[in-house]
Amino acid sequence: MLIYKDKTKPAVERARHLLGLMTLEEKVGQLVQPFGWQTYEHRDGKIELTESFKQQVKNGGVGSLYGVLRADPWTGVTLENGLSAKEGAEAVNEIQRYAIENSRLGIPILIGEECSHGHMAIDGTVYPVPLLLGSTWNVDLYREMCRAVAAETRAQGGAVTYSPVLDVVRDPRWGRTEECFAEDPYLIGEFAAASVQGLQGDALDSDASVAATLKHFVGYGSSEGGRNAGPVHMGWRELLEVDLYPFKKAVEAGAASIMPAYNEIDGVPCTVNTELLEDVLRKQWGFDGMVITDCGAIDMLAAGHDVAEDGMDAAVQAIKAGIDMEMSGEMYGRYLLEAVSQGKLGIGVLDRAVLRVLVLKFKLGLFDRPYVDPERAGQVIGQSEHVQLARKLAEEGIILLKNEKDALPLDKRAGTIAVIGPNADHGYNQLGDYTSPQPADKVATVLKGIRAKLGAESGQVLYAPGCRIKGDSREGFDTALSCASQADTVVMVMGGSSARDFGEGTIDLKTGASKVSDSSWNDMECGEGIDRMTLGLAGVQLELIQEIHKLGKRLVVVYINGRPIAEPWVDEHVDAILEAWYPGQEGGHAVADILFGDVNPSGRLTVSIPKHVGQLPVYYNGKRSRGKRYMEEDSKPRYPFGYGLSYTTFGYDQLRISADSITEDETATVSVNVTNTGSRTGAEVVQLYVSDSVSAASRPLMELKGFTKVELEPGESRTVEFKIGREQLQYVGRDLKPVVEPGLFRIHVGRHVNDTMSTELAVREGK
């Protein structure tokens, strides 16, 4: 038996043997990744592979396919022409079978899929977007979600996912804010590790595991002006201790793959940044997995960043810098063979990349079990347990921002309710970007959720959309006002939309990102490629709220959106505000559960919400020296990091620390008593922050270094403990290395960054 076919041998040994058998054309073939949805045609329930795909297999093979199962306007895959759960598995089997049986060495294809908040395929469960997932502050629940996503994806043959997104949000005008967990690196790091653990499971070759791809490496959330893929202006110290931190935690958790970002940092595009890809990632962190570009990133080197003379130069620079595979581009396939023949690329560099791809395939078990069971796919994908999990996550991540005079929860018998707004009954608007098409009956909108909650009394629910997300049409105002005038309570579901459309010219055909469209029927104002200058409600939404407010009814606003909304008038005038982000397919039920008190809200903000866009940046962990106010207003956000209300109250007391001083190698335990002082069961997010009083390099005033979510019955108390040691006290010093400096630290524990108790801890010189 050939060594590479012997499943008892280690993955690296098998990969090295196979590499030695390959031709130059076969090696280059392993580094290319065409668009997967272009490899087949689906007609009358049958899958037929395209001639172009068959030719690629014949000409040296295909290493990977991107988005075989992806469905959205970019792919042109719809509910009508797309693949069901079972059909998707059958299609992947057909692709694998052809590649294995019609290539000289029988190398299986690596199927890569988008799974940021659920597998982006028809029938897949749609979970809340990462911004809401982070707002749960429940890492264990998120890890459980990642296991479910991995199970659904692998059941159809997907073996690697292009998630998690670990970007640190620094400017929420950025359209991809919704894809991120937070503005804080520590919190993102906790979710990053959980993501890898959940997606990859105990073994990559399990039929319920996929390889995680960390993205976007790095600084992508700190772009100039919040413009997607814009330049990043950041020094190495900040890069190391903020933006790189979550990636390091995920690499330590065993992540199998990583994706460099589109942006440049200090003039060097991440795609060819050897300091990041080789010195930090591989040498310092010991990462031994695969590096894959973002879509079209190599093209940008010669047409965008302009750091390469042409495509040949771009491809050679990328592979030399450490890029192993090109996502959905054509540069590797077009130029690498020629580059070797012309002496511009050494065979050793090429072999290095190919080996990493092959090792991952062996670790995933693709050579030994390349096919999946279509019947099982139909059973696993979209199962009821996954739907229930989607609802639970939404319930835990929705944030109660305001509740004047206990306007919430609503009484189910307290008269007529008017549900008004462009997001009240628009299912796709509450799902976020990177979502497949959905049948109308699969998504529970807020209107559907409220009607389902009231059951036989649902006749007391009135509805009017009122206006669109964008545009200046007020033709729906009269109907909305009439509806609201008949109600005792008005629930206005406003916000944004990341729903992609099929309009011609609204999709970047190279990267798949949406483009701004002025079409009256396009409401997309968030998502990849949709960055904004302001953070206010788009269109005439604010005007509609103001008109309905004049009626004097109890007024509750529910925001469904992908980035923070800064609307001072709403904050000051309405009775209650729920921030639901994009809550997924079960979001309407979750909102209704909270509105009527069947669920006590426990979500907490992971991004600060400003009073005005002119305050940006407002992330909480900025430097002490950044100033305190403008002429017009102070610099404090409307709602701070970690903030969120509950239907009960919590008291903190007896903050204590086990030692007054420690050395840098010792630990202390800080503890606090937390009591539910209200009349309802509720969950509190207890947050730990550390402040370094004096340091050789300037530090933020406060930094999150721990958190835990505890559920308490009325009157119940619990002691919460946190360990304080090197990891919580160190920072990147002047020599760009981690250091714990002797001196005084202040330890804060509380309900959010601006509401804490504190004690002191001294770090002394060790013996």
Verbal overview:
- GO terms for molecular function: beta-glucosidase activity.
- With 767 residues, this protein is an alpha/beta fold.
- The protein folds into 3 domains: 25-379, TIM Barrel; 398-607, Glycoside hydrolase family 3 C-terminal domain (Rossmann fold, 3-Layer(aba) Sandwich); 650-763, Sandwich (Immunoglobulin-like).
- It contains 22 helices and 28 strands.
- The strands form 8 sheets. Strands 4-5-6-7-8-11 form a 6-stranded parallel beta sheet.
- Strand 6 (160-161), helix 7 and strand 7 (211-217) form a beta-alpha-beta unit.
- Helix 6 (139-155) packs antiparallel against helix 16 (384-397).
- The radius of gyration is 26 Å and the shape is globular.
- It starts with 10 loop residues before the first helix and ends with a strand.
- The mean pLDDT is 95.
Descriptive terms for the model:
Rossmann fold, globular, 22 helices, six-stranded mixed β-sheet, TIM Barrel, about 775 residues, alpha/beta, about 30% helix, Immunoglobulin-like, six-stranded parallel β-sheet
